[in-house]
Amino acid sequence: MKAAVFALVLICLGSSCAGSQPIDSSSTNGIQKFSRRYAESTIASDISKIVDSMVQKNFVNYLLNQREKKSEPTADDSDTRIFNDLLKKELVKWVQSKADAFKNQ
């Protein structure tokens, strides 16, 4: 995308420079020169807006990616969950065995 914008700038600037006429003191030449400068500054402004919007989108995507990375469970979390599940099962078995032993007495 950046290359396309850069190429567009070069094409626009190249066509305006190639079509330029020698500086003359006539009023029509002054108007053409003014309009060419106005067109070039308008193009530069538009390109600046496009590049700014691209930077903003990239920043938002970066923030979203960072958020997704934080929300993904890590291997340590899954190991901890498995260990906790095993402990709960062992605890339930132990309590049931004690309850059965108490009933048998």
TrEMBL record:
GO molecular function: glucagon receptor binding; hormone activity
GO BP field: regulation of fatty acid biosynthetic process; regulation of insulin secretion; response to glucose; response to starvation
Cited InterPro entries: GIP
GO cellular component terms, semicolon-separated: extracellular space
Top-level taxonomic group: Eukaryota
Signal peptide: 1-19
Keywords for this protein: Hormone, Signal
Designated name of the protein: Gastric inhibitory polypeptide
Source organism (scientific name): Phoxinus phoxinus
